[in-house]
Design goal:
The chain is α/β, with parallel strands linked by helices and 764 residues long. The protein contains 26 helices and 30 strands. The protein folds into three domains: 2-138 and 370-476 and 479-550, Rossmann fold, CATH 3.40.50.740; 143-363 and 562-593, Dimethylsulfoxide Reductase, domain 2, CATH 3.40.228.10; 615-743, Barwin-like endoglucanases (Beta Barrel). The chain starts with a strand and ends with a strand. 58% of the residues are buried.
């Protein structure tokens, strides 16, 4: 029996195996609230890619052959030397014929929480040492807020997030916790770099015990769990900016806003106030105006404004708020609302982004720096796109221009996609459009442990190991874990580093890439770098024996941290990094860009579709495609935790009883959810936890289309539109989506999402 600590994006675990299979998974002893997703690690050997595989037409006829057969054509298994020779030759061919910019380097980074084996670090170290590739900025989770926050506060988004008010301060000082998008425990249990002990539930229990009132503003009642006794209001999805504008307007006209704060600490208040009061456009953003947009009662809006002004109020926004058309605006308007209340920088007041979206921000303790594989800087002459604009890239003609964040760029002609880490056929929008654009490149290479929908649509698939099959370092907040392999690599799987090392050797920069270390030597090297600046760390072999190394952990309640407290205390001596040194409610920099879809101050801008408009006459339900409970994105969708959330293997959608009754739907009916972009199937669950006018279907079901593009398995991204939030950030807009639903007639088709592709002999 082998036993080891393992850090996943959803937390630390102890894993037992017999060397071939995982036999038991338990939460780490230091984790008070382990994620249920850990149970799915027991299915880690299912749906695996066993050997290097090449799509038959590509192998027989070369790059660009029959791309329309991606996803349906059989593969031919080849040995590693042949596979690596093919990839190295194709990288060389594309570079020499079209330039480095013709290669798109893709990674969504969630493939490993280990410090060394993170796929994004591996692929970008390799491709940048090779000479570069077309690259991306931002994330599907947070591109819009990453785009707007630097203009408001003069600091990068993740730097601001690291300064967020701590839970201990909220518990001690907050009276009213207003969360746009809720505080979903399952979302708070994941983190890109690996989640440490899960404490969000404990903190929320402490907050409630000390009298904090939680207000959940969301289409889903259970976005804050019932145990925390939340109040719930549910404006039409996507109208939060209008609600916030009306709250500020009420404070202005009733003289309840903090005049001193907006004058002393903010730039642009007179301009914003004129907009909200209608002086600049003739339309007052009043509670009556917002009632017609949000579906709320105007008296309810005014009452909430009064309550927020009379209490120590903490405003929280989740990532979901900015994954919509004009997603920059709700975050900017929320800052303006917090400024009008005048509580920014005070204990228990102001705002946060985002409690309940990714781990537990604002714990007040600077994390220990754990070294990772060094990645060279991006070559200055390589194109950069917003991460969610890949289909625009693939569809564009060479030289076609685009705007992003004040920069006018040109799309290159993409001939090759090289991807390691992630599954674009889960997280991208309008998957049928993506499927068509995916036929444009001549070659697609994917590193993948599993036969995902993305792997099935590649030309060359290189089998990669999972975190269970390799050694690494896991940095989990106040713990450093020695992650030791508990399984032998499945089939002929190799880790990403070994694959890239062999390719780099073939391309004549092997020593530069490896620095003459194998993967285990790199892991030890990174630990020794950590040890040189942390004298409490024991020698490496002793660390491996211990398994877990604890940093200093403060007791519950300490230390404390208040966002922008130093700025509030001394705005002249501690100015922000904005042009004015103040919180910018008006940005002349953004104004100079001339973007109609992102003006110089926070604004209500009509989305391309929403409830209460003519678009809802045809598709009268707003789709809420939130994060799943039983998996992280699409990871381990075949696993125990994910399968427990399904009905007979099919994804479950949730619908309000009034909407189900209007359509004659019964519990567990298989339904077709559709709009003009696509359709998918799901089993319906009827519950009043979903507001009338909405339907909820979590993301992450492995894309499983029939021959007409309908996803049999229930992936909502066949329904979502692939459009940027604005020319500023160009983030995804998945949460702006109207649909209709109907009972499926007849026997539903079988789910084939987890079936591997056909493997055939060469020239068969």
């Amino acid at each position: 029996m082998k036993t080891s600590n393992l850090l996943m994006h959803w937390g630390p675990f102890v894993v037992d195996s017999d060397g071939q299979h995982v036999v038991a998974v338990s939460g780490h002893p230091q984790d008070p609230d382990p994620s249920p997703i850990g149970a799915s690690l027991k299915q880690s050997q299912q749906c695996r890619v066993a050997r290097p595989a090449v799509r038959r037409s590509w192998l027989e006829h070369g790059p660009g052959s029959s791309p329309e057969l991606r996803g349906v054509e059989p593969f031919v298994e080849v040995d590693w030397d042949e596979a690596l020779d093919l990839v190295a030759a194709e990288l060389t061919r594309v570079r020499d014929a079209y330039g480095h910019q013709a290669i798109f380097g893709g990674s969504y980074g969630w493939g490993s929480a280990g410090r060394f084996h993170m796929p994004s670090n591996q692929i970008f170290r390799f491709l940048r040492q090779f000479g570069g590739c077309t690259d991306v900025w931002g994330t599907y989770s947070s591109t819009a807020v990453e785009g707007i926050i630097p203009y408001i506060f003069g600091m990068p988004y993740f730097a601001a997030q690291g300064q967020q008010t701590s839970w201990s301060v909220v518990a001690e000082h907050t009276e009213l916790f207003v969360s746009f998008g809720g505080v979903r425990i399952s979302n708070a249990q994941v983190s890109y770099t690996g989640q440490g002990p899960h404490r969000t539930r404990d903190w929320m229990q402490r907050c409630r015990a000390q009298g904090v009132t939680f207000l959940n503003i969301s289409p889903l009642r259970d976005d804050i769990e019932a145990q925390f006794e939340p109040r719930w209001i549910h404006p039409y999805p996507g109208t939060d900016t209008a609600l916030m504008a009306a709250l500020i307007h009420t404070l202005i006209v009733e003289d309840k806003y903090d005049k001193d704060f907006v004058q002393r600490y903010c730039h642009g208040w007179p301009t914003l106030s004129a907009y909200l009061c209608g002086d600049s456009d003739g339309l007052a953003k009043s509670a009556d105006w917002a009632a017609g947009i949000t579906g709320l009662n105007s008296a309810e809006i005014r009452s909430l404004a009064h309550e927020m002004a009379s209490k120590r109020t903490f405003i929280n926004l989740t990532y979901a708020l900015q994954r919509q058309d004009h997603g920059e605006q709700p975050y900017w308007m929320a800052v303006a609302l917090a400024a009008a209340l005048g509580q920014i920088g005070l204990p228990g007041g102001g705002f946060a982004f985002p409690f309940g979206s990714a781990g537990s921000p604002g714990n007040g303790q600077p994390p220990k720096r754990i070294p990772s594989l060094p990645v060279p800087k991006r070559p200055a002459d390589m194109p950069v796109i917003s991460v969610s604009r890949i289909v625009d890239l693939l569809e564009a003609k060479a030289g076609e221009r685009f705007e992003c964040n004040g920069r006018n760029g040109a799309y290159p002609d993409t001939h090759m996609v090289y991807w390691a880490g992630g599954n674009i056929f889960h997280h991208h929008q309008d998957l049928n459009r993506l499927n068509r654009a995916w036929q444009r490149p001549e070659t697609i290479v994917v590193h993948e442990p599993f036969w995902t929908s993305m792997a099935k649509r590649a030309d060359i698939v290189l089998p990669a190991t999972t975190p269970l099959e390799r050694n690494d370092l896991g940095a989990a907040e106040t713990m450093l874990l020695s992650m030791q392999a508990v399984l032998e690599p499945f089939g002929q799987a190799r880790d990403d580093y070994a694959i890239f090392a062999e390719l780099a050797k073939r391309l004549d920069f092997g020593a530069t890439f490896t620095e003459n270390r194998d993967a285990d030597e790199w892991v030890e090297h990174l630990y020794e770098q950590f040890r040189t600046s942390n004298n409490f760390a024991p020698p490496y072999e002793e660390f491996r024996e211990l398994g877990t190394l604890h940093h200093d952990m403060p007791p519950m309640g300490t230390p404390t941290q208040v966002f922008l407290s130093e700025f509030r205390a001394d705005p002249q001596g501690k100015p922000l990094g904005t042009p004015s040194g103040l919180i910018e409610l008006v940005s002349e920099t953004i104004g100079a860009y001339g973007y109609a879809d992102c003006p110089a101050h926070p604004s209500w801008l009509e989305p391309y579709e929403r409830l209460g408009t003519d678009a809802a006459l045809k598709h009268p339900l707003h789709l809420v495609s939130n994060q799943p409970i039983g998996r992280l994105h699409s990871q381990y969708d075949h696993g125990e935790a994910s399968q427990q959330q399904k009905h007979k293997g099919r994804e479950v959608c949730r619908l309000n009883p009034s909407e189900a009754a209007a359509r004659g739907l019964q519990e567990a009916d298989v339904v077709r959810i559709y709009n003009d972009r696509g359709a998918c199937l799901a089993a319906v669950h009827i519950t009043d936890a979903v507001m009338p006018g909405a339907i909820q279907l979590a993301t992450g079901a492995w894309y499983d289309p029939d021959d007409k593009g309908m996803c049999k398995h229930g992936n909502p991204n066949v329904l979502t539109r692939d459009k940027g939030t604005s020319q500023l950030a160009q983030g995804p807009t998945a949460h702006t989506c109207l649909v209709e639903v109907e009972r499926l007639d007849g026997e539903p088709p079988a789910i084939t999402a987890f079936d591997p592709p056909a493997i055939v002999a060469r020239n068969s």
